[in-house]
Sequence to fold (87 residues):
Amino acid sequence: MDHIVTVQDAVTAFADFMEPTAAELAAIDAEMPVIHAEMELLDAQIVVIDRAPTELDQRRIRRARRRVLAAHRDYVNGLPVQKGGAA
Fold:
């Protein structure tokens, strides 16, 4: 009988002392507006997944798509993050 062996121990063997570097944390922080915008778009799409979207739903999805595009643009261009804004 052959035993199935996982590599879980080998993958996580060094996890206790490996922390993200300051550069990695800064990169995650810089990408957070994109992640939040994509989550907002996903939320808007989930709302209409089982029904026909109303005009209000369609506007919410369009706004969320524009925010995703703007967040991607700002991230790629290295522009400062705009927080808040009109809903």
